[in-house]
From TrEMBL:
Pfam families in the record: LRR_8
Biased composition (Polar residues): 345-358
Start and end residues of each stretch annotated as Disordered: 260-368
Compositionally biased tracts (Basic and acidic residues): 260-271, 288-300, 359-368
Matches recorded under SMART domains: LRR_SD22 (SM00365), LRR_TYP (SM00369)
Name the UniProt record assigns to this protein: Uncharacterized protein
Keywords annotated in UniProt: Leucine-rich repeat, Repeat
Keyword Repeat: yes
Length: 413
């Protein structure tokens, strides 16, 4: 945190304090404004968006015409009491409770005190030049603006007003914001005959009388009207008449708010929302099902992990069988045991054991192969001779191609 004093002013403005007319120290983490009486010519000061808690050092800056101290931590505005030349004062978004020090500022044209803790509005009859009054987001329950003949903009939204303010004497008023209050009717005496109102915001109040709208309909200059969230917005007959009365409007908002509606109980509104949501969910489910069917037709087949597993298993089996292939040189013959052929070349004995004899297992040359279920027969390398005795007849010779002897029952043997 830092303090705004003469030295700081000199450093920031790079100008002598006694000749300085404009100073901007916005968002500089300042928490205190010290004596700035040396800034005798200062006319415009912007010290908004800091953390200022005390600004008494400004009370001698009597030439100030424009002062912005918005978004700070001020709890009092007593330092403005003697600033008779102020035309614009913005102390919005602070912690101010008492606004009475402004009652003497006769040259004031714009007073902005929104988002404070003000509950009572001071006497404003001396502020004859005031054209903009912003007091929204406070705790105001009553206000008298009848003496503000130059007023063109009045913002009183988000307060505790129960009565429509008397604006019959505010013939120059163009913008009126009264939304988010507790106003339930508009008395005839509060509306003048020659009003120049263009924008009226009455949203989220408690208006329930059609006659109140009839009084507003006589304001021919009206272009925008917000009635959203009032009780009369739940009455279709009322709405029909309102649309007929306000034929010159550019914007008419008559949408109801669930939280302010008294025609339909809150429970019924919640049930209605749930039903609507269920209908939407059902529609979404139907759309999802149709989409899935379409995607199923168009989407190409993809291999699942299980399919990949089967494929891998087949590949491993094929590789294992390939390892069992034996390529024999041209001078190699194959001898089969006589007992093996007795089983129609199936490659297994009557007991289901491999037909490889112990004698053949000990033979040199090509090693004998064994596998429990493949029906492998014993192979040995022999020299080419004439004929051998036995059931085989002629010995098969001159085999020069690779021979797969592990195919079992399905072999060509």
């Amino acid at each position: 945190m830092s303090t705004l004093d003469v030295d700081t002013v000199t450093r920031v403005a790079e100008e002598k304090p006694e000749v300085l007319k404009k100073l901007t120290v916005r968002d500089k983490d300042i928490d205190f404004i010290d004596d700035l009486s040396a800034c005798v010519e200062l006319e415009r000061l912007d010290a908004s968006q800091n953390a200022i808690e005390e600004a008494s050092g400004l009370k001698r800056c009597l030439k100030l015409t424009w002062l912005n101290l918005a978004t700070n931590k001020l709890t009092s505005m007593h330092f403005v009491y003697k600033m008779k030349n102020l035309t614009v004062l913005n102390i919005g978004n602070n912690l101010v409770e008492d606004m009475s020090p402004v009652s003497n500022l006769t040259k004031l044209k714009a007073l902005i005190l929104n988002k404070n803790r003000i509950s009572e509005v001071c006497d404003l009859h001396k502020l004859k030049s005031l054209n903009t009054l912003v007091l929204s987001h406070n705790a105001i329950s009553d206000i008298d603006v009848s003496s503000l003949g130059a007023l063109t903009k009045l913002q009183l939204s988000h307060n505790c007003l129960r009565k429509f303010p008397d604006i019959a004497e505010n013939g120059e008023l163009k913008q009126l914001s009264l939304n988010d209050n507790k106003i339930h009717k508009i008395p005839a005496r509060c509306i003048g005959d020659n009003m120049r109102l263009e924008i009226v915001d009455l949203g989220k109040n408690e208006l329930n009388l059609l006659v109140s709208m009839k009084r507003l309909s006589h304001i021919h200059s009206l272009r925008q009207l917000n009635l959203r969230g009032n009780e009369l917005c739940n009455n279709e007959r009322y709405l029909s008449k309102i649309r007929k009365w306000f034929t010159n409007l550019e914007v008419l908002d008559t949408r109801p708010f669930a939280e302010t509606s008294k025609k339909t109980p809150l429970k019924e509104q919640r049930d209605s929302k749930k039903r609507k949501q269920r209908d939407l969910d059902i529609e979404d489910d139907d759309d999802s099902e149709k989409k899935m069917k379409t995607e199923k037709k168009m989407k190409p087949l993809q291999e699942s992990p299980a399919m990949n597993g089967d494929k891998s298993k087949k590949r491993r089996k094929k590789d294992a069988e390939a390892k069992r292939e034996v390529v024999l040189p041209p001078d190699t013959a194959i001898r089969l045991n006589k007992e093996d052929l007795a089983n129609d070349g199936s490659g297994t004995t009557a007991t289901g054991q491999s037909p490889v004899s112990s004698h053949d297992q000990k033979l040199k040359g090509v090693s004998a192969l064994k596998e429990k279920k493949s029906g492998v027969v014993a192979i040995k390398r022999v020299k080419k001779k004439g004929k051998h005795k036995g059931a085989m007849g002629d010995v098969i010779a001159d085999i020069s191609c690779s021979v797969d002897v592990g195919s079992g029952i399905g072999s060509s043997w």
